[in-house]
Amino acid sequence: MIPPSELQGHVVALHHVAIAVREIASVAPFYAKSLGLETIGEPEFVAEQKVNILILVAGGQRIELVEPASPDSPISRFVEKREGLHHLAWEVNDLEAVLSRLKEQGVSLIDETPRNGAHNTRIAFLHPASCGGVLTELVEVPNSASH
Predict the structure, then answer these.
(1) Fewest CB within 10 angstroms: 55, 73, 119, 139, which?
(2) Domain 5-144, CATH 2.60.40.3140 — does that match?
(3) Rounded CA gap, 80 and 123, in Å?
């Protein structure tokens, strides 16, 4: 998968595809049992984003099921309307530098500074208006350990 033109030269790999769900427990069996995806651990609560995340792996690719953990979670309104693809996440090596370059290029940033993500990652979101209509997350993995 080729990253959006704004991210070319900054991206290491596609980090994950996030699927917003109302309830992980009711959706996970489809992915794990019906499709045979490997479940990695238990759902993780990410306090800063007020979400629970369950990681599944398909052929080496991460799929994250994301459920709101409170009514004021950033994805609560999204899942009220529909469940489904929420965002694509691209892995980068130096998140601050990438955000700085993207800002200089006029890319609309939701997060101008990194924040904490699941599994000790640092993350930042880019506005869909600058990314072809797709909510885009940038992920910096600790110690540059991919996936």
Answers:
(1) 119
(2) no
(3) 24
Contact 110, 125 (CB under 8 A): yes
3-class DSSP state of 31: helix
- 80 φ/ψ sector (left φ>0, alpha ψ -120 to 50, else beta): alpha
- Domain-wise residue ranges, the chain: 5-144
* Cα 81 from Cα 97, distance rounded (Å): 35
- Which runs of E-coded beta strand occur in 47-111? 51-58, 61-68, 84-92
pLDDT in tens, the chain (147 residues): 555 666 667 788 899 999 999 999 999 999 999 889 999 999 999 999 999 999 999 988 999 999 999 999 989 999 999 999 999 999 999 999 999 999 998 999 999 999 999 889 999 999 999 888 899 999 999 875 544
Residues with Cβ < 8 Å from 22, sequence gap 6 or more? 67, 68, 79, 83
Tokens of 105: 């290029």
